[in-house]
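Z., the sequence and structure:
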Amino acid sequence: MIHAVLVPADEERPLYKLEVNDLAGMQAAVGGYIQAIDLGPIASTFFVNEEGKITREPVNRRATLMWWLLNPSAVHMDVIVGPALLVGAPDEVGNSTDVPQDVTKLLFETKSYKAEFQTYDDSHRFYGNQRRFEDYFEAINHALGKAESWTAVQRCRVVPAED
């Protein structure tokens, strides 16, 4: 049994935790054959319906923002459509694992978030300000927007705000 998080494409629907037992359970969660999207920096993977674009599934803004934050080379190059199933990175034999606890805590237990930026002239530190967000995905949207408009930004991240 794998502990996962489903990110619905409909933003009116909240993220929710679920357990999937096998490939059939993953396919049921996304509505078809699955395609993996690596989220390397957080040791996680999104599984999405591999035919979602063909069947014109709606863009999943939240999953896309998260993917873009963690994989900057994807920004404005592609989007995730339909529901996205978040699981942990594969183990040594390629089997999916549970979503890491720190990711679950970030998505479900964190009260506020802040965006931080690493600049080309100081790649050893992240900088932020006092701006706080109650929604993780709005914090990502802000971070990506700043990174796009501020040419000094090398990387950005969203972390829990210390209240």
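The first helix runs from residue 23 to 30. The CA atoms of residues 143 and 149 lie 10 Å apart.

Let me know what you think.
H.
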